[in-house]
Write a structure and sequence with these properties.
The structure is a homodimer. Chain A is of the alpha/beta class. In chain A, 32% of the residues lie in helices and 18% in strands.
């Protein structure tokens, strides 16, 4: 049996979406047991409960020996308010676990990776069940967490991490940021103007000098601006990679969508492929 | 005679707004001579001309001995693409000038302050003529640049700088960022959700540890979210200042509005007031 605790470090998940994930797991993954913390359904302004409630829920799940994995049920801003305090409270039981999610939950993946606690993994949130093709995203996670399937072979010979671009931009230079020298960094974004993507690339490429390269995930739901930006996201990524001496390595199969790939942090392609 | 060159490092200014500024200057400031670079009216996708055009216009204005000041006519993202190259090309003539603007133009003020070139000053853009009360913003700048009036007495005994919050967040940790230890840092923002303000404060307070304090300017045009954030911008600023050990010093009279105060970088209150 694989036991999976679900928590919401940012915003809450709708009950009906949690129920859809539970129903799918029950029907198709009899050897996976999912436990949504009641914190996932709390509301406190923007957040799924107060900072204390979100902190306690995450720390309790991470430190509970009965769970094999902590699956972030939703993104939405909020993890930055609890990550530093959480790391200080993680014990030995937290070290054997897998932590899976993306978007704002990348703040916790980043802090865990920095502190070498457990296995941080970029991948779909439980809340992605709402998307077109969302059931497949949920199946992908449950096959991975229950050991039925390994993550797809990494693309590069260097250890890889994956982040939402804005989330990464807010992490660089902070106490929650791991040293990514020698890493391939995948980035994706949703609902940002291309000028904001350009601005974020200026910032993160300055901070990532020394990394092994950047791969560009999907940039989706770009809002319509009063004028076109003038080039696309690939040209933006190439421009700032060139300026900062970071290799641009091409596209990555990640994004705010149901196809979002599973990317375990720090894993590289096997030597035979590199 | 005070000669003022106007350039647009980000987006272009509308001709009618430039004309309104010229008409006001002609009517009320006979001893100020304003020269809009034709680059101000160029269009290249998002920008007021290509990176080269914007770079050349700024460098030529800064290096031209006939001008006493460079006034940024518009903000809008774009200065980050030209600032590093511009600094490398500034000569002795650039050192005696005042550079005035805010918002995205803060990138150039930051780089100038870092390199100790000229006098960077936070203050209204020529394009602010469009705002309610915009004529007074233009008058404030022209009185200041033509020496009719000094900047308002600084609030604090430490040297002060002022930035748009997002602009500052993209500057911290980069080659364009000055050392702000011992400085009071004023920040303002427009058209960002409160959760984004919170996220930006997380980021900048981590980078500004060692500064003398933060003052909060106006946070305006906050978009309506699907749920309230849960606290206001003052509580956000206080929260992150507390967490990072930075003194929260109260409000600042800056913002994306016509009342936006003139703040010369690096100036502190006179000893008699401190």
């Amino acid at each position: 049996m694989t036991r999976i605790a679900l928590v919401c470090p940012g915003k809450p998940i709708l009950r009906e979406r949690a129920d859809a994930v539970l129903a799918l797991a029950e029907a198709e993954f009899p050897r996976a047991e999912l436990c949504f913390s009641k914190q996932c359904f709390e509301h406190d302004g923007h957040f799924a409960g107060s900072d204390d409630a979100r902190l306690e829920a995450f720390v309790n799940a991470a430190n509970d020996a009965q769970y094999d994995a902590v699956w972030f049920a939703m993104g939405g801003y909020g993890a930055a308010r609890i990550a530093a305090d959480a790391m200080a409270r993680l014990g030995d039981e937290a070290r054997d676990k897998t932590y899976l999610g993306y978007s704002d939950a990348g703040v916790l993946l980043s802090a865990l990776y920095r502190d070498r606690i457990g296995t941080p993994v970029h991948g779909p949130l439980a809340g992605d069940v709402r998307r077109e093709g969302g059931d497949d995203a949920i199946r992908r996670v449950l096959r991975y967490l229950s050991g039925q399937e390994t993550a797809p072979e990494p693309l590069d010979a260097q250890p890889t991490v994956a982040f939402n671009l804005m989330t990464l931009a807010m992490l660089v230079g902070t106490d929650l940021m791991p040293d990514l020298s020698g890493h391939v960094v995948m980035v994706e974004e949703v609902a940002e103007h291309l000028y904001a993507i350009d601005r974020l690339f200026f910032h993160v490429t300055q901070h990532l000098r020394g990394c092994a390269g950047i791969r560009l995930g999907r940039i989706t739901e770009v809002p319509k601006n009063d004028r076109p930006f003038g080039c696309d996201e690939v040209a933006i990524a190439q421009y700032w990679c060139d300026r900062s001496g970071i290799p641009y390595l091409g596209r990555a199969d990640i994004g705010h969508d149901a196809a979002n790939r599973i990317v375990p942090f720090g894993v590289e392609a096997r030597a035979s492929r590199s």
